[in-house]
Design goal:
Keywords: Cytoplasm, Exosome
Distance between the termini: 66 Å
Subcellular location: Nucleus, Nucleolus
Organism: Manihot esculenta
Helix content: under 10%
InterPro entries: Csl4, EXOSC1_C, Exosome_cplx_N_dom, NA-bd_OB-fold
CATH topology of the largest domain: OB fold (Dihydrolipoamide Acetyltransferase, E2P)
Strand order of the largest sheet: 8-9-10-12-11
Number of strands: 16
Shape: elongated
CATH class of the largest domain: Mainly Beta
Strand content: 35-45%
Number of helices: 1
CATH architecture of the largest domain: Beta Barrel
Mean pLDDT: 84
Pfam family, one: EXOSC1
Length: 210
């Protein structure tokens, strides 16, 4: 019996692999979500897939022998050593890396007060920048690469990136450098001023304090 158990453990070890949030673990028709996994439609289709909800080790478990559902159970065992992980609803601090016409991408640095220990990518879409006049948002007048933003996690998007929102007064750019390389000081909801030259630059500014 011990030899059989060891063999099963060896097989289990072979199946273990590191996964990150949003990674596909299998089709819902073939596997069942366990701990650290969830069901969601694949992109814009009605086909359900099982996804990882955290960073950790993927494990595939055999279904109970007496169960009518004989799909294997796939679960993800999280590692606390990996630091904070973004979750829908939480507030993050991120550094903008690229600004495009319809979205901006950013590297998430902190989840709440805790820093992350691995790379998580955030995407701020045009419709999630502010709550009003969404169709008039010009991404290049809201963010620039290098800006530090406070944002709220909306959901896990495609390609392991988190959708972020700055559509609240307290969310948006909290720290930025001017084109002259000096600190920008917020002077309104949409403007920051270079502390060196006095030049005004457009941003989606976060309201600091009360």
């Amino acid at each position: 019996m011990e030899e059989e158990k060891q063999t099963e453990e060896e097989i289990m070890q072979e199946e273990e692999e590191m996964v990150t949030p949003g990674e596909v673990l299998g089709k819902a028709a073939e596997v069942k979500p366990g701990k650290g996994a969830y069901l969601a439609p694949y992109r814009n289709t009605e086909i359900l897939y099982v996804y990882s909800s955290l960073t950790g080790v993927r494990r595939t478990l055999s279904p109970p022998a007496d169960s009518t559902d004989q799909r294997p159970i796939v679960e993800v065992i999280g590692h606390k050593a990996h630091g904070a992980v973004p979750e829908p609803g939480c507030v993050v601090i991120a550094r903008v890396t690229k600004v495009m016409a319809k979205m901006a991408s950013a590297d998430i640095m902190c989840v709440g007060p805790k820093s992350v220990r691995e790379k998580f990518t955030g995407i701020i879409r045009q419709q999630d920048v502010r709550a009003t006049e969404i169709d008039k948002v010009d991404m290049h007048l809201c963010f620039r690469p290098g800006d530090i933003v406070r944002a709220q996690v909306l959901s896990l998007g495609d390609a392991r990136a988190y959708y972020l929102s700055t559509a609240k007064n307290e969310l948006g750019v909290v720290s930025a450098e001017s084109t002259a390389g000096a600190t920008l000081v917020p002077i309104s909801w949409t403007e920051m001023q270079c502390s060196l030259t006095g030049q005004i630059e457009q941003r989606k500014v976060a309201k600091v304090g009360s």
